[in-house]
Hints:
Elements: E1 2-8, E2 12-19, E3 24-32, E4 40-44, E5 51-54, H1 60-71, E6 85-92, E7 103-104, H2 107-115, H3 124-137, E8 143-147, H4 157-160, H5 166-172, H6 181-195, E9 204-209, E10 213-219, E11 222-226, H7 248-257, H8 261-270, H9 273-278, H10 284-292, H11 296-320, E12 325-329, H12 330-335, H13 337-344, H14 356-361, E13 369-370, E14 379-382, H15 387-400
Parallel strand pairs: 1-6, 6-8, 9-12, 12-14
Antiparallel strand pairs: 1-2, 2-3, 3-4, 4-5, 7-8, 9-10, 10-11, 13-14
Helix pairs in contact: 1-3, 10-11, 11-13
Amino acid sequence: MDILAINCGSSSVKYQLFDWEKKEIIAKGLVERVVLGGSFIIHEVPGREKFRKESECPNHTIAVDLIIKTLTDPKHGVLKEMSQISAVGHRVVHAGESFTKSVLIDDEVLEAVKAVQHLAPLHNPPNISGIEAVRAVLPDVPNVAIFDTAFHQTMPDCAFIYPLPYDWYERYGVRRYGFHGTSHLYVSKRAAVLLGKAPKDCNLITMHIGNGVSHCAIKHGVSIDTSMGLTPLEGAVMGTRCGDIDPAIPLFMMQLEGLSAKEIDDVLNKKSGILGITGKYTDRRDVIEHAEKGDKLCKLAVEIEGYRLKKYIGAYMAAIGRLDAVVFTAGVGEMGWQVREKAIEGLECLGIKLDKARNKAAMTRKRESLITTDDSPIKVFVIPTNEELVFTEDVAAILEGTYTDHMNFEYSFSKKDFTL
C-alpha cells in the first residue's frame, strides 16, 4: 500500500510517498510558486539526484496533476501507474470544534472544513484546494484529513475560553484551538518511550520551535493547554509572528500610522517576531551568527526568545503539576543549542539541570538526545519530529479499520523497538 501525504500552502504543495509495507519513503518533493507564475517541482527519490522541472501551475489541481505525473514518469518517477496510490492524507490546519481526530473525507467532512475556513484564512483555503484537486485527479482514491487542531481538543474550557464576551465563542467560535498537533503528538509518544512509561502516565511540556513556534502542556498524555490560539499568531516569539503582545498595540499603531486592518495583520504575521526585532533575519542561524559578531539587535532577539521560552516552561509547570520532561523539537528546537540553553539555564530551582556539553552535542535530526544531567529530577530531550509518519499511520489505520484516537491507537513510534 502506497500512501501519498499532501500539504498544501497558498502557493506551494509539499508531498511524500510512503510504502506502508516496507515502512519507507519512496519519494518526496515540493511544487513551488503555485498560482504565482514561474512554478516548478523539485522531486527527490532516495539514491537519485534531485529532479527539478519548470511547469506552470495556475491552480492547485494542476500542481497535484504535476505531482502525479512526476511520480509516474518513466524516467524520474517511482510508480508504474496512478492506481498504485492507495490513499492520500491531507494536512488540514483548522478543524474548529468539529473533529477530534483524523477522518476519512467525504462531502460532509469537506463542507465542515469549509465552514471554519474563516478561522484560518491563510491556511484552510489552500488545504481545501488540495483536497478538491486530489479528488479531481484521483477520483477513486480515498482521502483522509489530519488536523493540526485535533490533538488539542482535550483542553478544558478554562484553558481555551478567552476572557471576552462569551457570545463571541457561541456565535463565532472565538476560542483557543492550538496548532502543530501532529508534531506534539509524535514527540510526546516518543518521550514516553524514552521515559519508560505509558503515555497516560506522562506529564510533559513539548516545545515545537521552527519559523512557527508552539508549546503544549501535556498531562496524563493529553493536551491541557497550548500557546497558539484562535490563530497561529498567539504565543511564543516566532520567525515573523509577534506572539503574545498587549492587544491594544495594534489599535494604537493603526491610529498613529493610519494602517488598515489588513495592513496591521500583515505586520503582526509577516514583519514581526525575530524579523521585527533584528530588521533583517528570520533564520536563527543568521541571528546567532550576527549576535556572536556583536550585532545588538540580534543579541536582543536571542535574549527575548530565550526569556519567553523560559516563562512558558514555568507557566506550564504550574498548570501541569508534577513534570516528567521537557521536549524540544522542529528545526530550531532540534538544531539550535543556543536557544535551548537560553530557555533552560537557571531552572535548577525547578528541578531542571542542563548538561551544557550534551546540549551542544545535540545538533542532529537523526538522533534523540538527553540534554540534562543524569541526576536531573526533570529530563529534557531533543526529539526530531516526524509529522509525516503520523499522517501515514493515521491514513493506513483508517483504511484498515483499526484507528480510534491517539490515546487508544498504538502507533509504531510508541513502541520500544521503533527506530528513527
